[in-house]
Specification:
It is built from 14 helices and 14 strands. The strands form three sheets. The chain has a seven-stranded mixed sheet, with helices on both faces. It has two domains: 240 residues, Aspartate Aminotransferase, domain 2 (3-Layer(aba) Sandwich); 142 residues, Aspartate Aminotransferase, domain 1 (Alpha-Beta Complex), CATH 3.90.1150. With 387 residues, the chain is α/β, with parallel strands linked by helices. The longest helix has 21 residues. The chain binds pyridoxal-5'-phosphate. The site of pyridoxal-5'-phosphate (PLP) has 15 residues, from α3 and α4. One of its GO terms (cellular component) is cytoplasm. It is an enzyme of class 2 (transferase). InterPro entries: Cys/Met-Metab_PyrdxlP-dep_enz, Cys_met_metab_PP, PyrdxlP-dep_Trfase, PyrdxlP-dep_Trfase_major, PyrdxlP-dep_Trfase_small.
Length: 387
């Protein structure tokens, strides 16, 4: 069956007793044992929960993995995976990284003796040079957030395998509908399911998918030991969101094309970052490893003075943190998602104070383009004078 079908059919027919089409929410935290030494497969809800199992089986299949694990948030998923590593271990990480992941690595896990080197993973020579005897994994975010730089996953995997490193991919921006890193050789995929997988800006969740039974058992142990698991109600909400993933991603993407093309033409904008544009420097790499471009578009305004006026004038698009929901959002990475990254690093990477990030929703493209155009027009008029 195709991915679209598998997603829609998630949980259907799995509650055999009742035949419920939508798999029910099992709130029970404890499950009766038929007799000594026997189990229904469910004992205690942290270890396994029937509603969460439906979600975990669905994401494992969607990502072509062997096991899925649902966590309380994307950060909980990252933290759980980091439980694989021990004091003294070193990881190579995407330079342009989600701010929360950077914060976890630098302000929490560094205290446990893990070290991280941030490298532009598009430069495989630099990645090779960063490998040390104590290096254990390469942590990839592609596209990067918010600059939409694309890492060649196959190339990184090849290098990782040569040095016996794990390849971990944060697939939040692409979703398995557009990109399946495990099929390209990665070992672990993780998601902030709060974004596209949930899709409605109403559930906080994280997912991990593993390849291979050994790695799956290690993560299963960590997932249960750490206990940052997803609750049954949120598991149910996430399954419901994922049923429409394919339809939503198609619309996110076509709307992103419409918005990116319009932004490119506007005199208030100096640069547009969208991997779907033929002129994007990594466009060909993206096409070679993914079946789509998703719906995230970043752009730079001409001057920092325009930022406030632009945001203030948005009517349809909400000025809000997060991404991947049906509603369009605009984020200012400098003060929101990337505020915890020191200014000099942020600017070195290219996350400057003229950069804005759009999560293009599934509204009518004409309405989105009209709203962005009027806010951009207004940003050019400050204090009544056209600059
Ligand atoms: C949001 C996000 C996370 C963190 O996920 P939460 O669900 O907010 O904890 C991690 N990685 C990326 C790429 C994200 O966008």
């Amino acid at each position: 069956m195709q991915l679209e079908t598998k997603l829609v059919q998630a949980g259907v027919g799995k509650d055999e007793k009742t035949g419920a089409v939508n798999f029910p929410v099992y709130y029970a935290t404890a499950y009766r044992h038929p007799t000594l030494g026997q189990s229904t497969g469910y004992d205690y809800t942290r270890t396994a929960n029937p509603t969460r199992s439906v979600l975990e089986e669905t994401i494992a299949e969607a990502e072509s993995g062997d096991a899925g694990f649902a966590c309380a948030s994307g950060m909980a998923a990252v933290h759980t995976v980091m439980g694989l590593f021990s004091q003294g271990d070193h990881l190579i990480v995407s330079l342009d990284l989600y701010g929360g992941t950077y914060r976890l690595f630098e302000q929490v896990l560094s205290r446990y003796g893990l070290t991280f080197t941030y490298v532009d993973l598009r430069d495989i020579q630099k990645v090779a040079e960063a490998v040390r005897p104590e290096t254990k994994a390469i942590f990839v975010e592609t596209p990067t957030n918010p600059l939409m730089q694309i890492t060649d996953i196959r190339e990184v995997v090849q290098l990782a395998k040569r040095h016996e490193l794990l390849t971990i991919v944060d697939n939040t921006f692409m979703t398995p509908y557009c990109q399946r890193p495990l099929e390209l050789g990665a070992d672990i995929v993780l998601h902030s399911a709060t974004k596209y997988l949930g899709g409605h800006n109403d559930v906080l969740a994280g997912l991990i998918v593993t390849k291979g039974s050994q790695l799956s058992e290690k993560i299963r142990f960590l997932h249960n030991s750490i206990g940052a698991v997803l609750g049954p109600q949120d598991s149910w909400l996430l399954v419901r969101g994922m049923k429409t993933l394919a339809l939503r991603m198609e619309r996110h993407q076509s709307n992103a094309f419409a918005v990116a093309s319009k932004l490119k033409e506007h005199s208030a904008v100096t640069e547009v970052f969208y991997p779907g544009l033929a002129e994007h420097p990594d466009h060909d790499v993206q096409k070679s490893q993914a079946s789509g471009f998703s719906g995230m578009v970043s752009f730079r305004l001409k001057s920092v003075d325009q930022v406030g006026v632009f945001l203030q004038n948005l009517r349809l698009v909400s000025f809000a943190e997060s991404l991947g929901g049906v509603e369009s959002l605009c984020t200012y990475p400098t003060t929101q998602t990337h505020a915890d990254i020191p200014q000099e690093i942020r600017e070195y990477v290219g996350v400057c104070d003229r950069l804005l990030r759009l999560s293009v929703g599934i509204e009518h493209p004409d309405d989105l383009v009209a709203d962005l155009t009027q806010a951009l027009d207004a940003s050019l008029v400050v204090g009544g004078a056209v600059r």
